[in-house]
Write the structure tokens for this entry.
Amino acid sequence: MGYEMTSDVCIEFDNVVAGYKDFMILNNLSFKVAKGSISLLLGPNGAGKSTVLKTLFGLLKPRQGRILLDGHDISGFAPKALLAQGIAFVPQGRNLFGQLSVFQNLELGGITLGTKVTHERIPEVLDLFPRLKERLHSQASALSGGEQKQLEVGRALLLRPTVLLIDEPSIGLSPLVVQDVFKLLRKLAEQGTTVLMVEQNVKSALKMADDAIALESGQLVLHKKASELLADPNIERLFLGGGHVAPATEKTVP
């Protein structure tokens, strides 16, 4: 059963092999992501979820295969070139300059834009995050975990990305803050941004996502609508590990 793409393809992995030195993590991985959708990468630890994001953002170069953005081959592009192509990456953990203020962190996020454009765009980012506006001159290290994650996302949004890659946004955040982050991602998708994410809070993320892409040992084992997967009684096996093997009727290749 093929996965039906109902809108234009934004991202495509075509038989991608990638990893570190002699250890390959992605093994002939192929999937497609629709434009303006939120796609959730699932799978047990070591399945290759974060490696997908790193390879897409140019932090790892594919050994084989191609990565396409809007039909154009971007395989092996450096992160700076991918930023210029409209791809932004919010990695796992905290990636802020703790001794600098919220405003200074935002300025640095727009360093490739130049000072004038950055200062023009900062207010539109702050409109999305009223709490950051209130704490504009506070040190980033003094922010709560939720505020720090908002600042990281806000810094990425300065670039007005067409594609947002986000790795484990809920780590260290309260359930209420997590819901706020998910609502923001949903709003961005509705405005046309394509979101590809890894998230440990799987059931909550599936409620917000459009598609679910399940990996095991760096290969695609399942790609279906998030709502369909959420209703699947066997969902636990997809992200708790334990040798999930999708039945032939579920195994899909976009």
